[in-house]
UniProtKB/TrEMBL annotation:
Gene3D superfamilies: 6.10.250.1090, Nitrogenase molybdenum iron protein domain. SUPFAM superfamilies: Helical backbone' metal receptor. PANTHER family: LIGHT-INDEPENDENT PROTOCHLOROPHYLLIDE REDUCTASE SUBUNIT B. This is Nitrogenase iron-molybdenum cofactor biosynthesis protein NifN. It comes from the Bacteria. The keyword Acyltransferase does not apply.
C-alpha cells in the first residue's frame, strides 16, 4: 500500500493539475450537439479553451457567462439566464453543460436553483435543449473529478429513472478521462466484435476524432446522443473504466438498476483478460479470433520487450487513475517506480499504486524526486524537467501540445498495451548508456602472464 504524501507547498511550480471545470467541459464535448458553458469570468474560459485547442488541434465549442465586477457583486443569475437563451436562439444545441468555476462557487451562488427557475419560466424557449449543471470549483479536485461530475450530472438529469425492460446485448460504457480518442474507438470495436451494442458516455471518439465536417457546426458533431443517454437505463450491463467512474456507475444502478463492473485499468495482460472474460459472459460467446490474435501479439511483445525494462527506474506524474494504469504497467514489466506524483488525494486508487509513496504535487516535485530515473512519464509540461535532468520523456496524459497525434495513441487492451511496450522499449534503446571501458592490463614482453598471480587465471 502506497503512502500518500499531502501537498505542503503554498504555490505550484510548473503545475501538473488541470481544473475540474476543464474536465467537465471535456465530458460534455463527448455528447452530440453539445455546448459547454463556463459560469464565471472570461479568463476562466480562455485558459481552458487554449489547452483544449492545443491538445486536440480542433475547433472547440466553449462559451462563458462572462461575469464582470458588477455581476460578481450582485449575482450571476441574470448572466446565466441570458447565456442559456442566447445559445438556444443562435446555435440551438441539444445539450448545454453548465460548469461552475471558483468565482461563483466562492460567492456561494445557488446555481441549481437558478437553472430550475430558468427551466420553469422559459420552458417553451429552451424546449428540446437539455440544461445540465456540474458543480466544479477550480479550487477543489482536478480533471478526473470534473469529468466524473459531468457524467454523473448527465445521467441524473437525462436518464429515465425506474426499472426498464433490459436489452441484454446493450452495454453502457463509462470511460475515464485518461482514455484517448483511439482508446475509446478501439474499445467500442472490441465490444462490438462480441455481438454487443455499446453506448459510450461520454464519447469523445465521435466528436474529437479529427474529422472535418462539410459545413460549419457551432456545437459538437458526433458523440453520444441525448436520446442514448435518456435510454441508458435499458442496458443489460454497465462497464466503468477508472475508479473515478465508479460514482456515475453507482448513480445509473440507483436510478435504473443497471448492474456495473469497474475496471481500474485496461492496460496489461491480466486486466484485459478480465475485460474479455466479462464480455464473453455478457454475450455468451467465446472471444473472436481477431481478439485472440491480438492477445498472442501482446504475449510476443512482452517477450520481446522485457529485456529492456528490467531494473529501470520510472518517474510518473499523472491524474490518479492514469498514474495507477501506468505504474502497474511498468512494474509488471519489471521496472521500479522511483517517483509517483499526482494531482489530488481524493481518489482511493492511490493506495493501490505500486510505489513506496505517492506525492500530491506538481512537476516541480517530479523533478526533485526523479533524479537518477531512466524515464519520465507525464504530459507535455514535463519537457522542462526532461531538459534539466537529461532524462527522456514519454508524453502521456493531458495536455500534449508539442506532438501531433496524441489523441490517436492507443494505451489500452491488447493492442494498446503492445504499443506501450514498444514505445517505452524504443525510448530505452535510444538512450542507452555506453558501456564502461576498463583500461587493459600491461603485458610483459614474453607474452600474457599465466602464473598463479595472473588476472587471466583469477589470481591476485
Amino acid at each position: 500500500m502506497a503512502c500518500i504524501l499531502p501537498q505542503t507547498k503554498s504555490a505550484a511550480i510548473n503545475p501538473l493539475k488541470s481544473s475540474q471545470p476543464l474536465g467537465a467541459a471535456m465530458a460534455f464535448l463527448g455528447v452530440d450537439g453539445a455546448m459547454p458553458l463556463f459560469h464565471g469570468s472570461q479568463g476562466c474560459t480562455s485558459f481552458a479553451l487554449v489547452l483544449l485547442v492545443r491538445h486536440f488541434k480542433e475547433a472547440i465549442p466553449l462559451q462563458t457567462t462572462a461575469m464582470d465586477e458588477v455581476a460578481t457583486i450582485l449575482g450571476g443569475a441574470d448572466r446565466l439566464e441570458e447565456a442559456i437563451l442566447n445559445l438556444k436562439v443562435r446555435i440551438k444545441p441539444r445539450l448545454i453543460g453548465v460548469c461552475t468555476t471558483a468565482l461563483v462557487e466562492m460567492r456561494g451562488e445557488d446555481c441549481a436553483r437558478y437553472i430550475a427557475d430558468i427551466k420553469a419560466r422559459r420552458a417553451e424557449e429552451i424546449a428540446d435543449t437539455q440544461v445540465v449543471l456540474a458543480n466544479t470549483p477550480d479550487f477543489d479536485g482536478s480533471l478526473e473529478q470534473g469529468w466524473a461530475k459531468a457524467v454523473t450530472a448527465m445521467i441524473e438529469a437525462i436518464t429515465r429513472p425506474g426499472e426498464r425492460a433490459r436489452q441484454p446485448k446493450k452495454v453502457a460504457i463509462l470511460p475515464g478521462c485518461h482514455l484517448t480518442v483511439a482508446d475509446i474507438e478501439h474499445m467500442r470495436e472490441m465490444v462490438e466484435s462480441f455481438g454487443l451494442e455499446p453506448v459510450v458516455l461520454p464519447d469523445i471518439s465521435g466528436s474529437l476524432d479529427g474529422t472535418i465536417p462539410d459545413r460549419w457546426v457551432p456545437t459538437t458533431y458526433g458523440g453520444t446522443s441525448v436520446e442514448d443517454i435518456r435510454e441508458l437505463g435499458t442496458a443489460g450491463q454497465c462497464i466503468a473504466i477508472g475508479e473515478h467512474m465508479r460514482c456515475p456507475a453507482k448513480v445509473l444502478r440507483r436510478l435504473a438498476g443497471v448492474p456495473y463492473a469497474v475496471f481500474q485499468s485496461l492496460t496489461g495482460l491480466q486486466e484485459v483478460d478480465r475485460f474479455v472474460s466479462l464480455l464473453s459472459a455478457v454475450s455468451k460467446a467465446a472471444a473472436p479470433a481477431r481478439v485472440r490474435r491480438r492477445r498472442a501479439q501482446l504475449q510476443d511483445a512482452l517477450l520481446d520487450g522485457h529485456f529492456h525494462f528490467g531494473g529501470k527506474k520510472i518517474a510518473i506524474a499523472a491524474e490518479p487513475d492514469q498514474l495507477y494504469q501506468l505504474a502497474t504497467f511498468f512494474v509488471g514489466m519489471g521496472c521500479e517506480i522511483a517517483a509517483a506524483v499526482t494531482t489530488t488525494d481524493m481518489s482511493e486508487i492511490l493506495e493501490k499504486v505500486p510505489a513506496k509513496s505517492v506525492q500530491v504535487g506538481d512537476l516541480g516535485d517530479l523533478e526533485a524526486l526523479a533524479a537518477g530515473a531512466d524515464l519520465l512519464v507525464t504530459h507535455a509540461h514535463g519537457r522542462q524537467a526532461e531538459q534539466r535532468l537529461g532524462i527522456p520523456l514519454m508524453r502521456l496524459g493531458f495536455p500534449v501540445f508539442d506532438r501531433l497525434g496524441s489523441q490517436h495513441k492507443l494505451t489500452i487492451l491488447y493492442q494498446g498495451t503492445r504499443d506501450l511496450v514498444f514505445e517505452a522499449a524504443n525510448v530505452f534503446q535510444a538512450n542507452q548508456r555506453a558501456p564502461t571501458r576498463f583500461p587493459l592490463q600491461p603485458v610483459s614482453k614474453g607474452g600474457p602472464a599465466t602464473g598463479p598471480g595472473s588476472p587471466l587465471l583469477g589470481g591476485r
